[in-house]
Specification:
By secondary structure, this protein is an all-alpha fold. The protein has one domain (about 1-254): CDP-alcohol phosphotransferase transmembrane (TM) domain (Four Helix Bundle (Hemerythrin (Met), subunit A)), CATH 1.20.120. The chain starts with a helix and ends with a helix. The chain has helices at about 1-5, 15-30, 40-60, 60-90, 95-125, 125-155, 185-195, 200-215, 220-254.
């Protein structure tokens, strides 16, 4: 278990850090040595589970919403498991990372698209669909702007990625969880982790979408999703554009 715990990503997202990722470590304890079960198969299981949960959201109804909330968490546990398994076996690969990230992006779109449709069916108003579309669009913009910045910088400086100033595509630091256990230290860590809720990334989505399904309050959740992603999408895109502009000005000055 110690070796498995060391595969937990050091800087997990908010809900992942103290809920889904530790559960993934526990699940991996029972399956990590099953050689037929590969990290890519776990990634596939995560995506299929996400598809089923999105379908249940679209169908609607209290029971389906609760089942979807459970499956969303299960999908995210699988999503944590695949990386842990690959690090434990020392079989990490660029292609595995690519498919993991690609399915993550797609399932967020499917979840919130389904939530928008379900809220529309409940209310008869098109607003929830608009909110879901806005949130997904600006969430996608956050990632797209980062890769565009990298592409532009690399096109004018082939050593850009080697200079340590580029936003990370993949976490290259050793994935190590905390060593040992100290109650006071654990409480301090837990308190610090709560700041990550303001990042409004996939780990936060897992929590707020599941909670909205359980209490059947989809439209208020979609407002939070749309507003947070609009603010973050615009601010981060503007900052990356400024980075490119400042880099161009420095090059001209030289």
């Amino acid at each position: 278990m110690t070796l498995l715990w060391a595969t937990k990503t050091r800087d997990d997202e908010w809900w992942s850090s103290f809920v889904t990722s530790p559960i993934a470590v526990l699940f991996n304890y029972f399956v990590v040595d099953l050689r037929w079960l590969t990290p890519n198969l776990v990634t596939l299981a995560s995506f299929v589970t996400a598809l089923i949960s999105a379908a249940l959201i679209s169908i609607g109804g209290t029971v389906n919403f609760i089942l979807a909330a459970i499956l969303i968490h299960l999908s995210h546990i699988f999503d944590c498991m695949d990386g842990q398994m690959a690090r434990y076996r020392q079989t990490t690969s660029p292609s595995g990372s690519f498919f993991d990230r690609a399915t993550d992006q797609l399932q967020v779109s499917l979840w919130f698209g389904a939530a928008g449709y379900a809220a529309y069916e409940q209310s008869g108003r098109v607003l929830p669909i608009l909110l879901a579309f806005t949130g997904v669009a600006f969430y996608s913009l956050r990632g797209y702007a980062k890769y565009v910045e990298i592409h532009i910088e690399v096109s004018r400086n082939s050593r850009y990625l080697e200079q340590g100033t580029a936003p990370l595509l993949i976490d290259t630091e050793p994935a190590t969880a905390a060593r040992g256990f100290d109650l006071f230290g654990a409480l301090k860590w837990f308190a610090r982790e709560q700041r990550k809720i303001l990042h409004f990334n996939e780990g936060v989505f897992i929590f707020m979408l599941s909670l909205a399904l359980v209490v059947d309050q989809l439209t208020p959740m979609l407002w939070v999703f749309a507003v947070s992603q609009t603010v973050l999408g615009i601010s981060r895109t503007w900052r990356r554009g400024r980075n490119i502009e400042l880099g161009t000005n420095e090059k001209v000055a030289k």
